Amino acid sequence: MTDFSEIQAVMVPREVLDDGQAFMRAAGLRGNEGIVLWVGQKDGPTFHVTTLAIPEQRGIRTADGICAVIEGPELARLNMELHKSKLQLIAQVHSHPGAAYHSTTDDEFAVATRIGCFSLVVPDFATRPFSFAEAAIYRINSAGQWLEAPSSLFHIAGEGGYYGAC
């Protein structure tokens, strides 16, 4: 399995952005974080997101905070579906109730763990339209560390511009 460290651009259809934001907003209205996955195919240094995957998940509240949990059987099902469809996972996107940042829990329980994958965190339970300028964007390196990544890597498919400019 090759890694995604050479990916220099991620093309995301507006529908994937909007549908993912709507799911996370609905979870937020229930007081929960929500998580969605961007999947598609790599073409040289460009990754084309084609599909929004919304895994079965449940919200958890503890004294330390809240999180969305995807259980093992669902992760196995997603892995099999991706294998059958010849699609690959490039990013996980989830909401936080307040500020967008990558928490220790986000670091330790990531779903997108291939080198070069992304993790985006959307603030305020996704109550506003998606904006890369407001999201915290991280990328996993070969040492397994999540490091901040520039929004300039992301583009809206078919619109020719950076999503952060919207």
From TrEMBL:
SUPFAM superfamilies: JAB1/MPN domain (SSF102712). One of its GO terms (biological process) is proteolysis. It holds the Pfam family Prok-JAB. Transmembrane segments: none annotated. Residues 33-113 form the JAB domain. This is JAB domain-containing protein. Keywords: Hydrolase, Metal-binding, Metalloprotease, Protease, Zinc.
